Amino acid sequence: MDANAWYADQIDRVIIDEAELAAKVKELAKEISADFADVDGVLLVGVFKGAVMFMADLARALTVPVEMEFMALSSYGNAATSSGTVRIMKDLDTDLKGKHVIVVEDIIDSGLTLSWLLKYLGSRSPESVSVVSMLRKPDAQKIDVPVRYLGFDIPNEFVVGYGLDFAERYRELPFIGVVKPEVYQK
């Protein structure tokens, strides 16, 4: 049984299908590749586990040299909402000095953690820092963050798939779908 069938009764609806995601990755990669065509490559920084699917697809679609790094941050602790205090759980292993850093986000909700991260990365002397995000929830944003490359704006609903999870499940779904409330309100 594939994941689509396994979770079928838990997904309310698909809001971005596999083909739309693939087309958007190609479009974003083309734009990034054009913007960085005259440099010696970019460093993609994936934030959290949720960005891994998007980051892998994006890296393969870029036509400029790519380095990849990951960070893990915590701003939630054991709560359901952000505390506003960010802790680095896993920092970068790469020196950022002189590099063109592109933060790869799966989704931007409040923007609080990303805002903190951009200041942190900027303090490490990169040549540039920009953000690419597959999704953004404009109605959930509490702080405006500069997103240079954006896939889709979506409603403020609980979504999973394409790396996004609930309780570590659904990441492998090839689409972005809205989870039925009864799944996460148990």
Describe the model.
It is found in: Cytoplasm. Its EC number is 2.4.2.8. It comes from Natronoglycomyces albus. Pathway: Purine metabolism; GMP biosynthesis via salvage pathway; GMP from guanine: step 1/1; Purine metabolism; IMP biosynthesis via salvage pathway; IMP from hypoxanthine: step 1/1. Keywords: Cytoplasm, Glycosyltransferase, Magnesium, Metal-binding, Nucleotide-binding, Purine salvage, Transferase. With 186 residues, this protein is an alpha/beta fold. The protein has a single domain (11-185), classed as Rossmann fold. The protein has 5 helices and 9 strands, in the order H-E-H-E-H-E-E-E-H-E-E-E-E-H. It has helices at 3-6, 18-35, 52-61, 112-122, 181-184, and strands at 11-16, 42-47, 66-74, 87-90, 100-108, 128-136, 149-153, 159-160, 176-179. The strands form 2 sheets. A 6-stranded mixed beta sheet has the order 4-3-2-5-6-7, with helices on both faces. A 3-stranded antiparallel beta sheet has the order 1-9-8. Strand 2, helix 3 and strand 3 form a beta-alpha-beta unit. Helix 2 packs across helix 3. It is globular and about 50 Å long. The two termini are 25 Å apart. The model is unreliable at 78-82 (pLDDT under 50).
Poorly predicted runs are: 78-82
Beta-strand residue fraction: 25-35%
Number of strands: 9
User: What is the CATH domain class?
Assistant: Alpha Beta
CATH-defined topology: Rossmann fold
Helix content: 25-40%
How would you sum up this structure in a few lines?
The protein has 186 residues and is an alpha/beta fold. The protein contains 5 helices and 9 strands; from the N terminus they run H-E-H-E-H-E-E-E-H-E-E-E-E-H. It has a single domain, classed as 3-Layer(aba) Sandwich (Rossmann fold).
